[in-house]
UniProtKB/TrEMBL annotation:
It comes from Candidatus Rhodoblastus alkanivorans. Residues 1-10 have a biased composition (Gly residues). This is DUF3572 domain-containing protein. Residues 1-55 are annotated as: Disordered.
Length: 128
């Protein structure tokens, strides 16, 4: 196959563990092959779970906020080795953004540099 079917919005991911073994995301492969009954991937589940809060907080900019969170998920993995952002960090990002996407970008950068600084900002915003 030269590429995913038209309309495909996902990806096929592989994970290589410390022993060099590679696992294929079979659910992603099923979607890539056109199996519409395949369950959503963890990435899709996180995006769906965050969609309502993004819409409430960012309105018409919610797709961009969801994309930002997906990017930060990937960067978080590279920085801290965790597969996804902890829910408290996601909450801190929403709280510190004040509904402004540009501020959320800056706070996401802060979280990746040192999440404790983000937490202090969020705690201060919560107490106001």
């Amino acid at each position: 196959m030269s590429g995913p079917p038209s309309g495909f919005g996902g990806s096929i991911s592989t994970v290589t563990d410390d022993s060099g073994e590679t696992d294929i995301d079979l659910e992603g492969l099923a979607r890539w092959l056109g199996d519409d009954d395949a369950p959503p991937s963890p990435k899709e589940q996180r995006r769906s779970a965050r969609a309502t809060r993004c819409a409430e907080t960012f309105g018409s900019q919610s797709p961009a906020a969801l994309d930002l969170l997906a990017i930060v998920d990937l960067a978080w993995h590279d920085c801290y080795g965790d597969g996804e952002l902890p829910s408290q960090v996601v909450d801190d990002l929403f709280v510190t953004s004040g509904g402004d996407l540009e501020t959320m970008v800056h706070m996401a950068s802060l979280a990746l540099t040192d999440w404790r600084d983000l937490r202090m900002n969020a705690d201060r915003a919560r107490s106001e």
